[in-house]
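User: Quick sanity check before I run a bigger batch. Here is a single chain. Can you write out its predicted 3D structure?
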Amino acid sequence: MPRFFQRQQSRTQQRVRERETGCRSIRRQARILHRLPSKVAGEPRVQQLREQHGQGTGSHIRYVHSSSSLGFFTGIGGMSGFLDVLGKVGKGLRSDDDFFDRLSHRYTAIIFIVFALVVSTKQYVGDPITCWTPTHFTDAHEDYTNNYCWIKNTYYTAFDERIPEKWEPHEHIGYYQWVPIVLMVQALMFYIPCIVWRLLNGRTGVDMNTIVKSLSGNESLNPDAREGTIRYLVRHLDRYFDHQRDLSKGCFANCKQLISKHCICLFCGRRYGNYLIALYLIIKVIYLANVIGQLFLLNAFLGTNYHIYGFEVIGDLMNKRSWKESGQFPRVTLCDFEIRFLGGVSNIHRHTVQCVLPINLFNEKIYIFIWFWLVFVSAATVFGFLTWLSMLFQRERRHYIRKYLKLMERIESNCDTKMTHAFIEKYLRQDGVFILKLLGRNTNDVVVAEMIDALWEYFTEQKRNIHPGNGTEIDV
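Assistant: Done. Predicted structure follows.
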């Protein structure tokens, strides 16, 4: 009997501990929600629903991930079916970068692939070119002429100009056959920086996609599971920070650490705590170089001043100029070919036929959209690069972390203690702040506040030697 009562007592204590853990998670989320500014709480539709359950009256907050930057709180009711649909749509998509990166490697790549399929359908299903042949040509002659002119290329001459002779120079139009292939290559080029980022990022030991999914999935609605997930992620990040820390002592080592905080160009690497942020900024530069290089690539491919093509289109629309005057993506072109006949003094007959290219009607609209889209992506990529470049400054890192520590009531409003400095600059360092900010870009402020709060609690416990075996002691 004593063993029976002992088992019953241990089970009761376990239930009490689980309930206290869930209550701590609920109180933490409620404190974050209460501390959010009114502007933040209103615009993203941050909502708090309290439910009556059990024997007492408690406030039960349910968290649901949103596509906005803050997310919102709501009950589990009629929205569950809608969330399931959204979950299936977004399943399999990684969340280890920000919106500006996805603008290039996801949305732009999809746009180029769709355009390639549209042009390919027109080329291989319909008639991409139709030539006006002499009346004595048979059907076989017409098919031969169409196929030859499609492969050989055509050239454009204005309607008010005479047809040039064989020896006179004329510029051929040779891009329309390769448009689908070039569009697919462009889509691949937009995805290459993403591949490089995931390959190099995956070797650090921090899987941002797993962290984001674990904190934004439906399983995070359970307070107990959410609290356990946060504790596990905090221990995982602590091991990462501890493993990457340079333990070497001396004046030279201290100087390198100090320089690496302000200039990642001189000292960059895992042990300096700036590997991820440096790698990410390099990937940003690759994204920017790719999208700008695409404009010049299209200029060489189309044989026009394509880097200013958008302004030329606007000028043509304002001046009411058509393709017949500008010569851009002409619908009607000329084609020269020769046919051999048996017998006679000269068995080679030269023909010049007029051909219509309906495919250029699609190409013109597609490339007008592509030009303006690439300009938009370029501007967005520059803006995204500058926002992340600010994280190299110590002041910005402190402001970002201190904002959430104040939100969680961990520090005073005007407090700048040594403990806060050690937490940001010696414990988290640049990579730690980068991970938290990237987490915020893919989830919301509530998740980031909970993670920073848990990391701060774990850090202060180490400083007080509550758990002396976990991690390396950091000097304040």
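The CA atoms of residues 66 and 72 lie 7 Å apart.

User: Great, the batch can go ahead then.
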